[in-house]
Amino acid sequence: MFDQLNARIDDKTDDLVTLTQELIRIPTVNPPGDAYVPCAQYLGNRLKARGFQVDYIRAHDTPGDSDAFPRLNVIARHEGRGPGPVVHFNSHIDVVEAGAGWTVDPFGGEIRDGKIYGRGACDMKGGLAASVIAVEAYIEANPNYHGALEISGTVDEESGGFGGVAHLASKGLFSKPRVDHVIIPEPLNKDRVCLGHRGVWWAEIETHGTQAHGSMPFLGDSAIRHMGSVLQAFEQELYPQLANKRTDMPVVPPGARQSTLNINSIHGGEGEAGTEGKPDDYSGLPSPNVADSCRIILDRRFLIEENIETVKGEVIDILEGLKKDRESFDYAIRDIMEVLPTMTERDAPVVQAVSQGIRTVLGKEPDYVISPGTYDQKHIARIGHLHDCIAYGPGILDLAHMADEFVGIDDMVQSAKVMAHAIHALLHSH
Predict the structure, then answer these.
(1) Is residue 317 among the annotated active site residues?
(2) Is residue 157 annotated as part of the catalytic site, yes or no?
């Protein structure tokens, strides 16, 4: 049976390549959420033509949703000949902006040396295409299977997933009895099973000041200078603490096996061209003002051994210390997002099924890893309370979000075979 299944996937290689190229050519850039509708419809039309029931679900009133940029998700379901387990493949259709440095058209889907190039090729339209081919090949080879197979294309993973998997999970679409097993084809390499991810806390810190004329800064109080003291305290106190926090989780790359903090952005003072209140074509100089406000966005990644309240407390202790020791220092802090670390057990059915597929197809033992950043498994575990979920897919993680992003064609074919083998194991595991 497996020989027949592998042969079918080999025969579908050209289809796999074309599907990946067509998905790349739909520029689903987030933000703002371009082309979600045509991409969801493209995927839905393909699967509907192959006997799937297709539903489109818009996440009204979620961040970014509007009539101009609707957060439209697609879920396709194929019912077997009788009751049985449900295996779901979830992929996000959104991609980050192309950015600079490309030597090819980022939305061209160009093929070079056995690789397909384009924004989202690796993260994660190649994985989406591989899962589609795996499911279609399995149904063709096993038309009398019992259970059900689902494929979803969801939005906004790159900005937290609230209009995508979080919304669908809140409706019970990632919970039992609707779904039993979930595979997310994120690019973790074809021989790796990703069990989960580190935790994340995003927060905004604002320092306050008093506006005055820039020629007489002594009459004001610079919020930017206050923020400078925050950043200096982070450098002297917090970063050394984080470097000493290590985890037993198999996080990749190895540098992410410690706690980390990134300052995502800093905003303060008078705006320039293209900022709030200034037209994009404004070419004058800013007004000479002492800044009365300065804001930074923190991206704190933490380990399964850490407590979220301790993570927050480390930052607040520094801010409170500055409030005590620094004249006129004042601040506000606002939570933006927090997600606890998650890790599926190695003996979970979906882990065992994909692992056996890797052994059979690739002839090697799988590596078990943890992602440095979160992905949509967080919502499936937190909201759907479904823990038989992993990430597995083709692509090199380090290429995600980079210029000249690509996915290897052979890697996609082999990953599709692993997925198809895992489907068989999961449908026969109950």
Answers:
(1) no
(2) yes
